[in-house]
Automatic annotation (TrEMBL):
Its cofactor is [4Fe-4S] cluster. Residues 490-509 are annotated as: Disordered. GO terms for biological process: porphyrin-containing compound biosynthetic process. Coiled coil: none annotated. GO terms for molecular function: 4 iron, 4 sulfur cluster binding; catalytic activity; metal ion binding. Keywords: Iron, Iron-sulfur, Metal-binding, S-adenosyl-L-methionine. Pfam families: Radical_SAM (PF04055). This is Radical SAM core domain-containing protein. GO terms for cellular component: cytoplasm. Residues 67-297 form the Radical SAM core domain. InterPro entries: Aldolase_TIM, Coproporphyrinogen-III_oxidase, Elp3/MiaA/NifB-like_rSAM, HutW, rSAM, rSAM_sf.
Amino acid sequence: MFDPDLLQKRLATLEQKDRELIMGLTRPPDTYESFADMRGYHQYTKRRRVMPGYDSQPMMDWLLSQKPSNNLRKIYIHFPFCRSRCLYCGFFMGFNRPEKVKNYLSALLREIRQKAKEPWVRSAPFHCVYLGGGTPSDLEPDQLRLLLDTVRENLPLANDCEITLEGRLKGFDKERRQAAIESGVNRFSFGVQSFDTQVRKQMGRKLAREELLEALKEITDQGKALVIVDLIYGLPDQDMDVWQRDLDDLLQSGVDGASGYMLRTAVNNPLEKAVRANLLPAEADLPQRGRMYARLRKTLLAAGWKRLNMTHWGRNSRERCLYDSESFSDTDMVGLGCAAHGQVNGFGAINFPILNGYLSLIERGKWPVFFCTQSPPEYRAYFDVADQTGMRMISFERFRQKFGLDLEPVLGWLTDQWQKIGLLTPDQHRMVMSGPGEFWQPNLSQAMIDCLDLASPDFDMELIDNMDFRKNRRRFNRSWFERQKELSPNLDVSVPGPGLAEAKRTPRP
């Protein structure tokens, strides 16, 4: 399945800069500077489209008729609208307009009721529900009640089901909060990003520091639901002093948990455009972001907070972070709403990502699925790479026990290199990440997946221009699906691309 000699042969054909994206720098000036760039990991390299986007109806019928696995079961509900756009955000889909929200909510409720009738959905309880976006906390109180009550009345939820509402504190008034709690929400997740007033307002956030802390205190003092906040490090004008004040404010805020994310901007993202036009100062460089991560880690560990995964921390035992803490390879999920992703017994299903297309399919009584994906049996090993590094460790013994795969001959040389530069430390039958290793976790995960790809005889080397090829996702997807069509001539593997522009105007029947 994986050939170590083939891996080394293919690695030798890569340019040095591309090999260093896998191995790291041989002599980095600092362990937090072990790589030239931060990468995103993508464990879906071997997934393929099993049916084209508009003809996935029978596939969804089949998936939702299956018996459930023993996996943790999740529900993700997507609300795609926001009242304003934050400069750093890559998830913005549209502004909150009353008529749009009304039409979308009507379609979403139909999808919930439609899927609730299916055997796979009905046959076992769900352990967590996450209402994300967008800004779902902007829903009116009666809309929140209607949506959440529809979920509870139609979908089987475990007695201890974690129900999270994502949003922002501005506009989340007492009436909305009461509606959410009375309808079952037991966890709020607020995007704070920074407590500093100047940093916040530059990013499009509305509340000042004092207003933010007061709003958090009001909710935490009530004690009826957990409160989690997101912080971002590396924002413009967020130097180390500002970041330390952010962490101090976090510790004093009384929240039950927090997430710390490194700022990552895409080309032509509004923030990137503003910096390029000299409208804002540049964000922190990568070495500085590494130092900011180190400060985050040191501060929260010293305060007795418990790490739940690579980004999430809990102040107390109430915070489980169930939606994000469990491994992806042992999870099933139903996705509800425009652009929502789901996973059923190893198959992926992605809802239509364009609002008009989603609404049209729901109106016609169709599954709003854009396309489904399937993977060969070894895909679980790819997921487990991400799962293990997400737990801050690498264990070849675990690969052997779970999958019967001996990956040490394939990846052992790589983990040895990472030990030499201080990213990993041996610990019995596993290797544990150091602080810098945690910071570079996306690189470690992606590097191992790259090596498994390169060690696979069926991997198409023509896909690789350089080891950043996954950043050009459209080219990668198109080449990959064209290759799949050659391998499976009877399989229609049409690819999303220019056709999306047409779909915006007229959803294909």
